[in-house]
Every structure is written in C-alpha cells, then in structure tokens.
Amino acid sequence: MHFCEVFIRRPVGTALLMLALFLTGAVALRFLPVAPLPQIEFPTIVVSASLPGASPETMSQTVAGPRAPPPARGPAGRPPRVG
After folding, report:
1. Residue 57, phi then psi, degrees to nearest 5
2. What is the C-alpha separation between 18 and 28, in angstroms, rounded?
3. Stated pTM of the model
4. Coil vs helix vs strand at 51
C-alpha cells in the first residue's frame, strides 16, 4: 500500500486531518511575535580626507568640491557627436 492510497481511500479522515492542520496553524499564527514596523538601523557613511598644509578653502574646492564625470567618448578615430 502506497502512502497516498491511505488518503485516497479515506477522504473524510483526510479532510479532518487538513482541518486540524489548518486550525493548528491559525492558532500558532496568533502567538507569533510580529512587530507592525520593525526597527531599522539606517547605514551611515563617514568620509574623512586630509591634505596636510591646506586651508579650509583649498580643501572645499579640491577635495570636497563637486566633480563632473568625464565626457562620453565615442569610438577611436571618429569625431564626437554634436546635438
């Protein structure tokens, strides 16, 4: 006798077993500790830069200043596209 034949031959017992498993899961679900909004720690990034002998103005212009990305270049030997 295969494992499945027991459940095929006894459909009422199978239904009762499924109902018992469902009710057990529903009762257990109520006791799970679930927070509505979990505590999240946001990552922080700390960057430090030093340039010995530089003034604060020099640091802000050279090290901490905005930098533009290099322009996109096309294939070698072709003039850049305009427009």
Report:
1. -65, -45
2. 15
3. 0.40
4. coil
